[in-house]
Amino acid sequence: SQTIHQWPATLVQPVGSPLSLECTVEGTSNPNLYWYRQAAGRGLQLLFYSVGIGQISSEVPQNLSASRPQDRQFILSSKKLLLSDSGFYLCAWSMGGSQYEQFFGPGTRLTVL
Amino acid sequence: AQSVTQLGSHVSVSEGALVLLRCNYSSSVPPYLFWYVQYPNQGLQLLLKYTTGATLVKGINGFEAEFKKSETSFHLTKPSAHMSDAAEYFCACEDGSQGNLIFGKGTKLSVKP
Lengths: 113, 113
Hints:
The complex is a heterodimer.
Chain A: E1 3-7, E2 10-13, E3 19-26, E4 32-38, E5 44-52, E6 55-58, E7 64-70, E8 73-78, E9 87-94, E10 103-104, E11 108-112
Parallel strand pairs in A: 2-11
Antiparallel strand pairs in A: 1-3, 3-8, 4-5, 4-9, 5-6, 7-8, 9-10, 9-11
Chain B: E1 3-7, E2 10-14, E3 19-26, E4 33-38, E5 44-50, E6 56-58, E7 64-68, E8 73-78, E9 87-94, E10 101-103, E11 107-112
Parallel strand pairs in B: 2-11
Antiparallel strand pairs in B: 1-3, 3-8, 4-5, 4-9, 6-7, 7-8, 9-10, 9-11
């Protein structure tokens, strides 16, 4: 069966510090991968998605970036965090194709102080 | 661009009462549709999905949803609410490319004893 992991689970970082969040998927190959952010009262915002190694599409321009160094690894990064980067970050994967649902990881709670 | 509208950011019901969470989509072509549930500080879990075929879809935890093309709706129902149903619920539709999903803003369900 497939599983998706995210770490860390919680993170408190000062403004201006770097960020690296990691997501890995097990039990499948060549998945589509997604990064979402949930800010209070704003629903889910798609940040990045990837259909293959090294292929990243950005949905929202901001100071975040994503990378996919391996087939089942997806990393969200920032060089300098802003207060507005606080939120709940969710990674998800899918088989690709419109009829397939996305499966979500447990999330990372990021607080920028 | 497609969109998903969830009527009511907060819904409160009594235990044992009917649960009705509303979702409307905007698309000229019937999309694939999904309902997810999110418990506090957790990732999203798929409740049910509509792709093709029967318009009444049954999901986990006693939930079901009916796809109505004429009303562009995909409302979620459960005949009898349980305290454990208290959570946030998200409706989503596929956007026709790469398996990306468009999410509604979510409806927070409270269940009163």
